[in-house]
């Protein structure tokens, strides 16, 4: 029993670490557009989001029930070390995508980690496939489409309603609306994502015999999960904020307001139903929709394509890491210790790598220059390189190009020019149309 108690404690700490990474990984969902348009200063934005994430954690437990007793069968013999391995897979994938500035789904990283570890340790029989399909996979496909379509319509309506209004006055109003809608997204994020960690901790307590099956999360679990995600949110995932705010499309205040309102409505509705959707997918879809909804707006499909690839890889990648961790952790105490040491070492290496090009609140709105080829746009054709010695004459006002090889060689063997005024007219004919044909070119004509 002491071993189980210690192991459950390790799982709880690891779950809170994941909740922390979830917080700074998903800060961009609520605050990227608000920061990019200047509606709020970066530090003030993440502070407001952190407080509202904490409050949102206490509003519902429906998603927590989906995690604790929905996708995994509690009576299948799953052990706490399997849950620990699933959390390790989710944490490592979260950090890798954060390093790349990629807005991937923390929710799907957690789902993939739990599913991969469970299948590796117990088998597919412990997975409730119908719940995974209905409450994870279908929402993953539908949520960004629903939020994107809603954002397109809201953006077009917003610009149509305000097309004759004074731009300065409406800009202030839209900024106030952005702050309000960002607050709503943060609250919705707390009601959805914080509950996932609550569900994992509750599942660990049930598998360890500390709680009865189908129990609701205890109050201390709700409070600790809310505090962990709030702390991570306050630190800010600046790399992903930069991608969401500047990398997908250029956002104006009306677009930011429309995108965040659409995302908040989608997230709150799904939390009420109990769908464990990805807030990242929802908010990214809403941002892309706002770019398509504004006349003249542009969506950078190169960045969007990277995001789609990351979304597709999240479940299998996190699941693969978790499966390998589960096989090792099941070997006993030394296996659990080895997984923990390797995870800490890898997380530390990722953090050290991120320090080479840090992104924080001081440079989050700076856009790194990207080549046209990286964005999927053909670059300008390269100018042909002239043959040595046949370079064109420099334009007036420009510095002359260095002499070619042929010019240099001819100048080296040519006789020196005669002194000024000594028989120049008599020694050199003026070329005409009749006598130029067949004459060798002078040195100046080759340079």
TrEMBL record:
Record's bilayer topology term: Multi-pass membrane protein
Compartments, as annotated in UniProt: Membrane
Pfam family, one: PHO4
Residue stretches spanning the membrane: 40-61, 82-102, 108-129, 136-159, 219-238, 308-328, 334-352
UniProt keyword Transport present: yes
Keywords: Membrane, Phosphate transport, Transmembrane, Transmembrane helix, Transport
Record's compositionally biased regions (Pro residues): 381-395
InterPro entries linked to this entry: Phos_transporter (IPR001204)
Biased composition (Low complexity): 368-380
Range of residues in the leader sequence: none
Sections of the chain in a coiled coil: none
Region (Disordered): 363-447
Family: Belongs to the inorganic phosphate transporter (PiT) (TC 2.A.20) family.
PANTHER family noted in UniProt: LOW-AFFINITY INORGANIC PHOSPHATE TRANSPORTER-RELATED (PTHR11101:SF54), PHOSPHATE TRANSPORTER (PTHR11101)
Name listed for the protein in its UniProt record: Phosphate transporter
